[in-house]
Amino acid sequence: MKNFSILLFALLITTVAFAQKKEKIKGSKNVTVAQKELEPFESLEIEDNIELYLVKGTTQSLEIEADDNLHEIIKSDVNGTALRIYTSKDVSSSKKLTVRLTYTGSLKTITAKNEVQLYAINELELDTVSVKNFDSSKSFLNVKSAKFSLAMNDKTKAEINVKSGATTIELSKNANLKALIASPEVKIDMYQKTIAIVEGDAVAAAIRVDNNAEFTGKKFTVKNLDLTAESYTKCAVLATETLSLSASGKTEVSLYGSPTSFSVKKFSNSAVIFKKED
């Protein structure tokens, strides 16, 4: 009975693995354009190596530019207020696989997965918006928002230009970020071999760098900075008025600027601080 249970479990695992594999398809290289109206949505999830462009408008719609035999495998499903865009087959090659999505002010969350390339060349202009990148996806965004958050995980990349009342960023598992930020309040958390190069300015910023992460912010001017650096990390920061520092492990902190107030909450292990010229 025990051997039968083990065999049954193995068969189930194999069946699930095969079920998850998609049939492959190759594009015809004959590019055509098709448009589609959409039901109202507040959240967006894109998958499967699609190149998607976000454009703000008065009504929500979809425009697909792709090899003519690929149109039918590009799916868009609205479940409740969630729109999911994906492919029903694995595209091995194509001349074009681009989606242009017109959104309205009701959009709140965007999730990109599986090597998606997400673009907002014109400003992504929303009251509150949250963007999440997973599975080697990439985002290239111009954002204007009262409240903006970005979460990146698992070999993702992003280049962002943000104007926001409050900005929150979380990076993990080899994520790579280049950012230009103009925001009164900024919160950045970095873990697991992540890299961030940030420029711009903030009134107050809380930055946490841990577990082999590297933060370069020597052109990110912060009036009041709270910095926590732990484990094997490298940081370069610029504070002009106050700096509160907690450093431990084998961290290296390079300090630019001349803060009038400098407090150390924690300084232990092999942590080092370098004072740099602006």
TrEMBL record:
Tell me which Gene3D superfamilies the record gives. Answer: 2.160.20.120
- Record domain Putative auto-transporter adhesin head GIN: where: 40-259
Q: Which InterPro entries match?
A: DUF2807
Per UniProt, the keywords (alphabetical) are:
Signal
- Pfam families linked to this entry: DUF2807
Query: Is Signal set as a keyword in this record?
Result: yes
Where is the secretion signal located? 1-19
What is the protein named? Putative auto-transporter adhesin head GIN domain-containing protein
Naturally occurring in which organism (per UniProt): Flavobacterium rivuli WB 3.3-2 = DSM 21788
